[in-house]
From TrEMBL:
Taxonomic source organism: Streptomyces nogalater
Pfam families given in the database record: ThiS
Family annotation (CDD domains): Ubl_MoaD_like
InterPro entries tied to this protein: Beta-grasp_dom_sf, Mopterin_synth/thiamin_S_b, ThiS/MoaD-like
Protein name listed in UniProt: MoaD/ThiS family protein
Highest taxon listed in the record's lineage: Bacteria
């Protein structure tokens, strides 16, 4: 299973209480399930409003189960930001 880094920004970082952490997952859905398991509570609520980048590419409306992760990849967790 690929090892990836999940990076949190803004409200997600505050809720996780870390800037980034490693996970093993083959899809974005798997990585997010592991994040929810490790951080029940506020981060789980924040994730519902987030968008995601995988290796710099926006996930957009793609089903998270279809977004494959690569060894050494990065998942960026981006809550909505105020302003422009």
């Amino acid at each position: 299973m690929p090892k990836v880094t999940v990076r949190y920004w803004a409200a997600a970082k505050a809720a996780a209480r870390v800037a980034e952490e490693p996970y093993e997952a083959d899809t974005l859905a798997g990585a997010l399930a592991a994040v929810r398991e490790r951080h029940p509570g506020e981060l789980t609520r924040v994730l519902q409003r987030c968008s995601f980048l995988v290796d710099g590419d926006p996930v957009g409306t793609r089903a998270h189960e279809t977004v494959r992760l690569a060894e050494g990849g990065t998942v960026e967790v981006l809550p909505p930001f105020a302003g422009g």
